[in-house]
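Working notes for the structural subgroup meeting. M.R. asked for a predicted model of this chain before we commit to crystallization trials. I am recording the input and output together here so anyone reviewing the notebook later can reproduce the run.

Input as submitted:
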Amino acid sequence: MNVSDYLSDDGLALLALCSGFALPEGAAEGGATPFTLSEWNKLARQVHDSLLQQPAALQGRTAADLARDLAIPPDDAERIVRLLDRSGRLALELEGLFSRGLWAVTRADEPYPAKLRDTLKHQAPTVLFGAGSLQLLKGGGIAVIGSRNIDEAGTVFAQEVGRKAAAARLPVVSGGARGTDRLAMGAALEAGGIAFGILADSLERTVRQPDLRQLLLDGQLVLLTPYVPAAGFSVGAAMGRNKVIYGLADFAVVVSSDFQTGGTWAGAVEALKAGWCPVFARDGAEVPKGNRELLKLGAASLAGADLETAGNLPEWLREHARRRPVERDLFG
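Returned structure, recorded in token form:
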């Protein structure tokens, strides 16, 4: 894999500005803190409206030049210069990353998943790191979301969604965590299907698992994360990756959710409000309270009997989806 096939000059600048990848230890104390998503969205508009127009044009300019050309405070201009002033280190680290079979891509690059960009718009992550075929991310999939601790009925349901997604040649999109995620992804992969794992834990450590390595090589699995490849698990990361799961999916199925707590609940509520994709919740007498409340908030019902009799799951979901208007915003 070649870095230039994934990252353009604009992408390299965006990676330097918005990611902690290859950032020297202690850089943050020196004022080189990567731009957050909201900060970059604001700066991107200022760059676009200036004579510079593109992120790559920020390279090689002094802080005084940037402060003048972008009409930004001197501290922000100095921050840009410090973040960009590691091109040599960044190039070296990228070569190492790609040599290990991993990749990086930014919102400024053509290979970035168009569905994710089109769905999330200004909320789409500026940088993605991953492993596996980036080409597989061009299409959609069925997101399967749920708790780590899941009952027997939920287990059967999650696995059946995975198998039916594989039969329809649609990827399963999930978080790769213990419980619902792995059950659905595993069932899809065993049926010869494809799975996308959106990680909130270390990508570098995950790809070293021998069984996953082979699935990546066989083109059945794609792993990606909006966080630096070595980053460990955190609750914040788990919450933050939820939108990527929904953003890559044509439909989302919530198998099991707690009520008003946990990442499954928060992600589903956010997706329903934003209208990223049609959201379904497992329905029935024994489902958790969170599922019942999501149905009240606008999720469509998917009972076990419906799942069992659905000959083509994507067609069934399309016919029974509830759609809400997407809330528009400044960058929509």
